[in-house]
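Section 3.1 - Work completed
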Amino acid sequence: MRGFQAAGVVATLLAVSATANANLLANGSFESPVIPATGFKDFPASGSPAITNWTVSGPDPGVSIVSGTFSQNGVTFEAQDGIQWLDLTGDGTNSNEGVSQSVTTIAGHVYQLTYFIGNTTGGSIFGTTSTVIVDVNGTPTYTDENSMTDATALVWEQFTHTFTATSGTTTLGFFNDDPSSDNSNGLDNIVLLDEGPAPTGVPEPASLVLLGTALVGLGVIRRRRKTT
């Protein structure tokens, strides 16, 4: 019986761990709705058609979901994850359009955000860098730039940030910051993880040294008592 009980405890702990490390963002790789292979589809701020779980903002025609088999001007545009990705420049919009999603969070918990930016330097109309601004609760908080060079393909770079939630709901937004002459700014594989409560009461380095010295001294005293 003890073996079964122990197995049950382990299973419960594993389930809790899996839940804690689950992606809090839905449709983070923009796999829904499905678009035709080799093509792309525009999604305006008006919300029709809509991107599953995401809200589009900015001027129309908005952003575009692109098939990973799409190619143009000698450049192939493979997704970083899955078979689709999001182009923040849209179809000729090339402004400050973007997408946002609200998730349930716990005030005081630390959250890790990772996502990929795609960039290409080929095709003459796709610019030289791709820059994304990340908003947290409507405030521009992070600016990341992929300046990797590839004249024939979309190359992806991962960016990671951590923040502490201040309320029961957090809204994350991802917005284009490329110039109007740039027609490609890839976004894919966005993941938000709950890292648990923010650490409190962590000893300063000097305090750790004092603690170590005290423990050594305590050990010496105990050894002396044993020898007397």
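Second construct:
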Amino acid sequence: MNQDARHRLEDLLDREIEVAGLLSAALTAERSALTGDSPQAVEQKSAEKTQLLGTIERLETERRALCAASGLAVDNAAGADGTAVAATVAERWHALMALMAGCRTANEVNGYIIHVRQNQIRQLMDIVRGASPVTYGPHGKTFGKALRPLARA
């Protein structure tokens, strides 16, 4: 790998690390918005996350093109011709992978929060519509009709 290609790759990885850090912060802010009561905040943080993911995708495409042109595979830590990747590039790559793993975990947590909220809203809508709530019997089995009504209007 020539010096120019290595410097360009290091710069690209630095930019990816920076954007991944911003994505991590955006996911944390999204989690706060999801547990809050402002739909506008959720929408704003979701849009910010989508924009950052687009930037990461663009940088990743650029990185892959640079690696292909240089005969290099950063994710395997060796070039196509078996040459080792510079230690600085490998360090940046590992840092990026660690950040992205954290982002994936944070995104899964946010997805879980969304799923729980959807179920809560579905249950509330069922109550408003007058559907019988799902309850549990003495043996822990669910059934769709309560033994007795809790209240009548």
